[in-house]
């Protein structure tokens, strides 16, 4: 295959580039890859794309979307070499799927609200996947998703299946119940139950998050960033007092952490009064 330099490339060119890379005289690395060997690469590219979205960086997003597209083309080429299907078959299938699942756009179904659209989507998805039970739709949620995201999707499917907490008070009561159980097994030192009870507590909190219309995964993501920021301030707080927290014993560092948090709360209260 003769490669021609161009001013601008299109999707067909990308397919040809991947084919060239996979040829016997192509790239030694690319030609030996399998779905399994580049599985992690796909995940990393998607996360990098999400990071570009979070950064509101359009140029970075364009680059990362290209990397994700390359992964899609690469995986499709592996299947094409096996004689199973190619990129055009993938495009055809997803196009048909979008048309079928949007009858309010491409058909005569009425759906004026987001809730109605989602309800139709779930109903159509169940039919096309030959699913008759809500539990079957739950089984279809990818187990490889981050656990909070998976839990959130399961809660939503439960709600659409007619099972949900009635109000916030009931949600808080469930969380308190799970927390009390965890306190008890910690007191009894029943380590066998730790994982189960922590998991049920986190799942209950995810339920409340859904009721509050918040994204559990994003909430924890932002909390992690805030914690890093606070810890950075704490390190400065310690350095100003001549303390190297990595060289101090745990007890002293924890005491300093408490002082730092107490100072923060005092400053917050002052700002609220101003």
Keywords:
Helix Hairpins, 274 residues, single chain, mainly alpha
Give your account of this protein's structure.
It is a single chain. This protein has about 270 residues and is mainly alpha-helical. Among the domains are: about 10-100, Orthogonal Bundle (Helix Hairpins); about 220-274, no CATH class. It has helices at about 10-20, 40-55, 60-80, 85-100, 105, 115-130, 135-140, 145-160, 170-185, 195-210, 215-240, 250-274. Helix 1 (about 10-20) crosses helix 3 (about 60-80). It is extended and about 70 Å long.
Q: What is the CATH domain class of the domain at 11-99? A: Mainly Alpha
* CATH-defined superfamily of the domain at 11-99: MazG-like
- Oligomer state equals single chain
Shape summary: extended
Biggest pleated-sheet summary: none
CATH topology heading of the domain at 11-99: Helix Hairpins
Please compute the radius of gyration using only Cα atoms. Answer: 26 Å
Low-confidence blocks of residues: none
Determine the number of helices (DSSP H or I, runs of at least 4 residues): 12
Q: Name the beta content range.
A: under 5%
- Give the SSE string: HHHHHHHHHHHH
CATH architecture of the domain at 11-99: Orthogonal Bundle
The average pLDDT score comes to 90
**Secondary-structure content class:** mainly alpha
Tell me how many strands there are.
Answer: 0
